[in-house]
Amino acid sequence: MELEKKFTEELYKRYQQTQRCLLPKEKYFGIIDELKQLQPQAKKTSRQYKLLARYEVLQCGHMEKLIKKRTTPEDSPIFFVTIEDTFDIIKTAHIATGHGGRDRMLKELEKKFANVLRESVELFKSFCKVCQEKTKRKRTKGVVVRPILSHEFASRGQVDLIDFQSMQDGQYRWIMVYQDHLTKFVVLRPLSSKRASEVALQLVDIFTLIGAPVILQSDNGSEFTAFIIRELREIWPELKIVHGKPRHPQSQGSVERANSDIKDILIAWMTDNQTTGWSLGLRFVQFAKNRSHSAGIGRSPYLAMFGVELRVGLSSTSLPTWQCLEWSQEWASVPHLSLPGNVWSGTKSGPQFHISPYLAMFGVEPRVGLSSTSLPTWQCLEWNQEWASVPHLCLWI
Ligand SMILES: [Zn+2]
Fold first, then answer.
1. Residues in a beta bridge with 169
2. How far is the CA of 95 from the centre of ligand 1 (A)?
3. What InterPro entries does the entry give (predicted)?
4. Which of 22, 138, 298, 304 has the fewest CB atoms within 10 Å, i.e. is most exposed?
């Protein structure tokens, strides 16, 4: 509470210096009143023209919200926020991105808000105790990794283990990190051991949900990957997958950094929630990683994987949360979402899909290891040794 007061005071100080962008509550409602009093036919002053070009009033139930002028009413509203509300809004984005840095927060905020300033985000970040602790634990800065561009077909997945034996949580001692190289999408699982059989079982779980890569690699060594692939073959004989080495020395550094990032977000989650039960926290770290903007691919891993922005229950609607909850009773009658027209066609018995649910969800056909390449399987296996040098897949930019 003390922090919020200090933060708001700082924003007011800034507002005194420059009147641009920041909106005290009073001014916010003043603009709404001015806009409402405008007569459509009457002659307008230049100030009124300016207001009309910049703002629009959105009726949310019995609340009026100031939003950025839209080109069509179908555009999602981008909200203006008052100085008084800024702290809460930044805090939500900060937690959602796993105590994300300035740029990650800005990316998250600009989807929904029009006037949250870079300076305000920096100021907030400097107030966060958890983040200060994080900076204290010195980190080595690595080289910038450029995404590897090629239009070849081999997809890669990487599986690594993070040692958490010193912080055992119930039966769990290890974190398994699975990352799809193309989209940077990560899946995190708590493990009780580093046995290949346990890792393989988790991977089958993941592969049957999001598809399996052609090449599996690991920083834990090629022997480790070989054992896992052998276990995978036991559980899922049809799955043909080969092991590869991280080909570029830099890409190894990038995985190391990703793993230390996961540790940091997890420790921040444990501090925020005052718990040592990190196996539960892993789910939220996974979520935060996948929804946050990734510089290497120019979008969030979630967007890269699913082709749409992520939804988080009511908070992804444009309504203020308290209002959603008030309306709770009425939500049952809200129409269901539907896919774009070309994907299904209606019949008397209801919609008929022309595509698999997987294709509808991910926008691409599922991959199942080597069998999704155009090569005959025997050949792939014969070539086993050479796969490590197959170029990485890249996203269409
Ligand atoms: Zn923080």
1. 172
2. 7
3. Integrase_cat-core (IPR001584), Retrovirus_Pol_polyprotein (IPR050951), RNaseH-like_sf (IPR012337), RNaseH_sf (IPR036397)
4. 138
